[in-house]
Amino acid sequence: MKIRGVFIEDTFAEAFTMRIARIIITARSPRWVRAAALKLTGFATSVIGCKVEAGIERELPARETPDGRPGISVLMMTMGKDDLAKRLIERIGQTVLTCPTTACYDGLPDVSDRVGVGSALRFFGDGFQVSKVIAGERFWRIPVMEGEFLVQEKFGMVKGVGGGNFLILARSADAALEAAEAAADSMAARPGIVLPFPGGVVRSGSKVGARRIKSMIASTNDAFCPTLRAVTVSALPEGVNSVLEIVVNGLDTNVIASAMKTGIDAACRDGVVAITAGNYGGKLGPHHFYLRKIMSGAAE
Amino acid sequence: MSGLVAKLKAPLRQRADLSEALAGSWATLSARELANRPVYLEQDGSVHLGDLFALDGHPQGKIRFVGQLDQADRLGAGLIEGEVIVDGSVGREAGLAQSGGTIDIGGDAGPRAGAAPPGFKRGMTGGELIVRGSAGAEAGAAMRRGLLVILRAAGERTGLGMIAGTVVVFGPVGADTGLWSKRGSVVALGRITPPPTYFYACTFQPAYLRLLLTRLRSSYGLPVRPRHLNGLYRRYSGDMAELGKGEILAWTSK
């Protein structure tokens, strides 16, 4: 299969089941919503080193937020259920609670599986906190020096998918970056997905384990490193001098497949030789996104 | 509106106590079953709800009362579920000790709406009571939880001895509002003079109030204005003669 001259390899992206929460942050102005969201999603690219993966899902106009202020929705995900509660409490407590004018709401209100967040953060109020029940949901008003921080008591949690991916194999670093930027831009702000890496792009795709240090759980994906073509078993076709990866996490397989289709289509441009995907032979992750099926319209 | 319609057959010539009409579980009862519930008339004693009202339709968790009901007392008392809509005004003690569901009164409510029954310590413990007109004295007295909203004036001693919960008043609020409260919030969008046992804390924008008012506007179509959402509120803590964890949030243009 070729799209505008770019070869689509007959392979699949292998992804994992993750626990996902959607966090709605609001604030007096877009400036402070963004400030909180950027901190909340900082250092959250991969569970390998960050314990959590997170990203901005989309900006919300005031009419779409619970309190009628500008907002941003964030998706945060971990491998385990207990882990997600811990990470939410840590991160919301350190980044959203601390940010001027913000409030923090659950973005998955219809989900029955719920974890306590405000119920833990309330203790920062040192006994001065107050709870309010609005439309059956409990919120905590935590007094802070600026005024009050409002946070919902519980946040919904669903099983989602992490690790949808594709690799852009290009003739040059410039071409790879240009294609990756186009792909990330086309996928940005799609409901239900986030691209957890910087700018949505990864330059350091990894393989499981390491050749030298056996205790490492991940190391550089040498098969796709152009500089190692002569010294390792390379997976790179002739003429490829740079590879970038797009990683996408989402609420379900359909939104990921749809986002991958859009991204791959945008990445198929001059200077790109092929599109492939990262997998572990299908043995680790239960979700397999076949590139050719996706590009021909079929889902996972 | 789907659900049951209870239309008053003839004007009430004496006070009627409807405290058992909707108490406890009622949302799945048929019109006939609901018609058998007792009502106590001040002079004639016990009759059935069906003797006073023509009931049509299927409840499905909703009932609308139609007719001149300002002599009907304790409508929605002990409500635990469902949606009750009243087209006009009601008498005393509407939503007495309500613990769930919604009561939406199109007109005025007499004294002690959402309050505690005589001899009991707790008023509303849940649910939402909307009065689109004015409310008499001691609305929300001894509230423990829940939400009471009054669109016009609230009488004196509103929220008397509140234990928790929220009272929102769009119009002027009577004297001694929040007196003896332990916790809870009285939100005054109109004129109010807090009792002397409430102490001024600060002027600020409570985020939770934006959330609450935004929801009241979207769920009930209440006339929440941008000045209510974006405005400042003077916070008074009290009642300092009690626990002192309650508050009056008084909207201010300054």
Q: What key phrases describe this protein's structure?
A:
heterodimer, A: 300 residues, alpha+beta, Alpha-Beta Plaits, 2 domains, 15-stranded mixed beta sheet, B: mainly beta, Pectate Lyase C-like, twelve-stranded mixed beta sheet, 11% helix
Task: State the gist of this model.
The complex is a heterodimer of chains A (300) and B (254). Chain A is an alpha+beta fold. Chain A has helices at residues 30-40, 47-50, 81-96, 118-121, 173-187, 253-267, 291-295; strands at 2-3, 6-8, 12-26, 53-60, 71-78, 103-106, 114-116, 130-134, 137-144, 147-152, 154-156, 158-170, 193-194, 201-202, 206-208, 218-220, 242-250, 272-276, 287-290.
Strand-helix topology:
The complex is a heterodimer of chains A (300) and B (254).
Chain A lengths: L1 E2 L2 E3 L3 E15 L3 H11 L6 H4 L2 E8 L10 E8 L2 H16 L6 E4 L7 E3 L1 H4 L8 E5 L2 E8 L2 E6 L1 E3 L1 E13 L2 H15 L5 E2 L6 E2 L3 E3 L9 E3 L21 E9 L2 H15 L4 E5 L10 E4 H5 L5
Parallel strand pairs in A: 2-18, 6-10
Antiparallel strand pairs in A: 1-2, 3-5, 3-6, 3-12, 3-19, 4-5, 7-11, 8-9, 9-10, 12-17, 12-18, 13-17, 14-17, 15-16
Helix pairs in contact in A: 1-3, 5-6
Chain B lengths: L3 E5 L7 E2 L13 H5 L2 E4 L3 E4 H4 E5 L4 E5 L5 E2 L9 E4 L15 E4 L19 E7 L13 E6 L15 E4 L15 E4 L10 E6 L2 H14 L5 H5 L1 E7 L7 E7 L2
Parallel strand pairs in B: 1-6, 2-7, 6-8, 8-9, 9-10, 10-11, 11-12, 12-13, 13-16
Antiparallel strand pairs in B: 1-5, 2-3, 3-4, 14-15, 15-16
